[in-house]
Predict the structure of Polyphosphate:AMP phosphotransferase.
Amino acid sequence: MFESAEIGNTLSREAYEREMPRLRARLIELQSQLIERRSTEVLIVLAGLAGAGRSESAHLIGELFDPRHVQVVPDLPPNDEERCRPPMWRFWRSLPPKGRIGVFFSGWYGLPVIDRINRRNDQAHFDARLEGIKRFEQMAVDEGALVIKFWFHLGRKDQRKRLEALAADEDTAWRVTKEDWRQAKSYRRIRNVAERAVRETSTGAAPWFVIEGLDRCYREIAVARTLVDEISRVLAAQDEDAAAAKARPRRTPRRAAAKRAAPPPLATLGETDVLSALDLTAHLPKDDYREQLPHWQGRLARLSREKKLSRHGIVALFEGYDAAGKGGAIRRVAEALDPRFYGIVPIAAPSDEERAHPYLWRFWRHLPAQGRMVMFDRSWYGRVLVERVDGFAPEPVWRRAYAEINEFEQELVEHEMIIAKFFMVVSAAEQLERFRAREKVAFKRYKITPDDWHNREKRGDYDAAVIEMIQRTSTELAPWTLVEAEDKHHARIKVLRTLVETIERSLDR
Amino acid sequence: MFESAEIGNTLSREAYEREMPRLRARLIELQSQLIERRSTEVLIVLAGLAGAGRSESAHLIGELFDPRHVQVVPDLPPNDEERCRPPMWRFWRSLPPKGRIGVFFSGWYGLPVIDRINRRNDQAHFDARLEGIKRFEQMAVDEGALVIKFWFHLGRKDQRKRLEALAADEDTAWRVTKEDWRQAKSYRRIRNVAERAVRETSTGAAPWFVIEGLDRCYREIAVARTLVDEISRVLAAQDEDAAAAKARPRRTPRRAAAKRAAPPPLATLGETDVLSALDLTAHLPKDDYREQLPHWQGRLARLSREKKLSRHGIVALFEGYDAAGKGGAIRRVAEALDPRFYGIVPIAAPSDEERAHPYLWRFWRHLPAQGRMVMFDRSWYGRVLVERVDGFAPEPVWRRAYAEINEFEQELVEHEMIIAKFFMVVSAAEQLERFRAREKVAFKRYKITPDDWHNREKRGDYDAAVIEMIQRTSTELAPWTLVEAEDKHHARIKVLRTLVETIERSLDR
């Protein structure tokens, strides 16, 4: 894998001078396309051996492009806000919006590789983290990003020479750290770990480019050429897509997305499904409700103050039919809690900043820190529900969302987060009654919009989407709770009880 | 000030039951207006003595409103990210967008008051911080926010009784901390400091509401009534404004803004102004440039690695005529630096999230941490330049922006930030030549837009705006540097040299 980058590749000064101006002009041109189209964000990962040219290449990238549209993400240790959330949170928050270029020093490879080098991680864990990275990159590419990963390499002796040269020069000595020398001593170990990482994560969606860092001319031309090739490739693919879309007047899936294998729709075997199996007559008499509400609220309140909880963030998400009582259920949970303990995030149309990022970005940004809870009023399931039903997301996009969502939730659970997912169900008849009641009360009128009536008409399609969603995303790590919401009292107690039991189970583990 | 909140105010249960349902219904109605209009964010500050009902009131607010549109900001100690920026940064980042309600525990009063109580701050410093707070609140209100500040109070003996009662109850004991008991012991001292804070910051824009916390019924009705009064007042004022705007077809300033005294336009006394006094023939021969560029870049690079700099963030902002060479100057600065040291923020049209916050929010969010530098390509001066000239901001709005900007920059400088402000000037003739040259080069064409031609036509108005901007905002703390940019070499070296000297001066201080 690295052999061809340990042979002392060089390029003559003349060849460099001949080629660089052309590449430079081409890159500025390509970047102006990126800025104009705002359809692609470029994620550049700079990784590699100490002294092999990461810093110089970041510098070069700043010079090749208009640096006003480039953002650099250093490889600092995570700060306290980042430490109390899943490790990928810090990269999600620093993703550039479409049209911009993000340069990541080591990026999401940094910690996993370092941990493996220092044997804080065994092979199996390392591989699992690499799998997670592959999924992240695939998701980013599917969502329109271009991922370019550079591994800067050097032969063992060359690395030593290079570090010595840097250390000898007054202007560059500061860049050679003790850590660099330490790394140079473990050359073999680092090379092995890196090779595995590069091999395992060189995918069609996001391949690695291994570049020998010995000779500046060679390295810079290699970087610039790769950038030209990759960016032109993506822009050309977009042009093709646009042309194809023009040729066929009906909405057609984007090529990149269409290529990915997605599971076919599920066949329904029996006569019943999770929705029709639900007993909507479930009912809780008012007196019982009055007795049980303080009981479960009290238990939740005490749980929220448990010491053990400080290691866990809690995510509770609420989906359901319009007027099924999501708001009321959320209030009963909120009432139980210290207002400083939780936040509520209502999900409406995405902002333009959110639209300029991969779909899940708008949810990542609201994830709770350890020891806190966030309730999502509607959630990332919008993609496989309303966006599917109303055609905002083309089929290949919402199809791949099932896997993306499962992976997202798995990532949260693996990092000690507790997830509770509620889907609240009312019959069409009860819903109609609630709509009418809302229209009569002045201050509830804002809760009922033309969208609500529109959604009612699509109930059949929506039901199908719900059934498939439950089948595909009710996992052992993050199961769905279907809530019979025909009777509000029953629904609220079921939500509270389920939440309490979910948290208790997680804390006992 | 507090006497009337130390007399044991109570309200009968019957009176409470009579009034609360009405207030509750009214608040939900008012909130639905807030959500619909999205023109006002409500900032509620909950401050007061331990045991006087802050937590309960936060809870109450969550119950009175639809909690999905309420966000609570606890009074945690600042985290890593917050500590390395000016103290107000953490509040700017947690400001709710228009349409939402933010509940701040102690908010921006927390640290100043605590510091004064513990005598970490003398009276003069305390007063200065209160002045800063007043300006912040005035700005927020001018920008459309509603600020409601509650001080929950108790008589000395009542406080002790209340804490004892809370501590005796199993469900509330956790809320009484050692710090609370400590505070109860320093009752007199805390009362004095708080009284000064409340007195000094009770302004027309953002008055305090002092509420005795002894009796729950009394306290809750007082809070709910205040909320109803304040929110109705603001909504009614907006209705009046809208009606007035309809009556007079021409754009009229918003009432709240118009009421504030703004300085009149400056009279020009002499024949010359800062722009015409500028010697645009300033020129640097190419050979000198080639010699000086590495000199100043090297000095800047070495400065950026100075230990002392780790206490300072650097803000460099670039304004100027279109095609004056801002981009080129920024590149020459960037070239000198480690890419991890700086960021570049190009300022274009605000995103919808930015529009939902006070004007300066979009700049606060990009402020550098200590030890880092951010270059703004265009800046907060847009309000008194392009927004003034093109009429995007009504006159009272851009008039008050001068003071807001000076206060903003003062706040940065007071917290060890280094500011360099560059305004780059080219003649109309040279500008025209550069426009034409850009149009000829394919990959530079994106740099020239219809806006640029439009701006050219308004050069006279723009000049006037520049002259007034320089006069009003070139302060000793943050002076403007006018850059003769007719000759690019001269301009770039002047920018680099000024930046180096500005940083050196700050480090020597």
Observations:
- The longest strand of chain B covers residues 146-153.
- Chain B touches chain A through 51 residues (CB under 8 Å).
- The mean pLDDT of chain B is 92.
